[in-house]
Amino acid sequence: xxxxxxxxxxxxxxxxxxxxxxxxxxxxxxxxxxxxxxxxxxxxxxxxxxxxxxxxxxxxxxxxxxxxxxxxxxxxxxxxxxxxxxxxxxxxxxxxxxxxxxxxxxxxxxxxxxxxxxxxxxxxxxxxxxxxxxxxxxxxxxxxxxxxxxxxxxxxxxxxxxxxxxxxxxxxxxxxxxxxxxxxxxxxxxxxxxxxxxxxxxxxxxxxxxxxxxxxxxxxxxxxxxxxxxxxx
Length: 233
Prior knowledge:
By secondary structure, the protein is mainly α.
């Protein structure tokens, strides 16, 4: 196991260290139940102080990645304890060379929650929220026509975020906020090199505008079908 000494960046040193260790855990280079190097070894590898390293360990521990045991040392925890919805952990996942496995699993999460969110939005969206969806679907249509990936990703992201807010269910709103970083990355990756799925998005929009919860749910399931999502392969 080897770590490069850090070049000072804008982020705090202890965050850089935590990120580097987390990436090795996330990629499996350091496996669950494996003991990580000693405090002294890590300080020498990174070229940092013990104070900074201890802050890094606290950060990793708070995300469920590691735990320290007396007379044993610091071990990587099982994946079931990792806080995958932690916004900072999501950012670190995005920095991995192979983010595909995580994004594919994220598709499974979307399948579990988005159809019901669309159904609730059809029932509860306000006039202003429906107007916002109208603007976004129009922008998405223009982006798809021009094959403008950046504009599509931006508006597609806002489209789904607006649906979460439109559920009128307070538990969906923070969930949508927590997932927003990875969702943005997922939308960009799943559309790149594939089709924009404009008609599927329009079917969701039409159902919400008509107040048809069942149709909105079905349209969302269709959008998230494996055949429409390049990352599902």
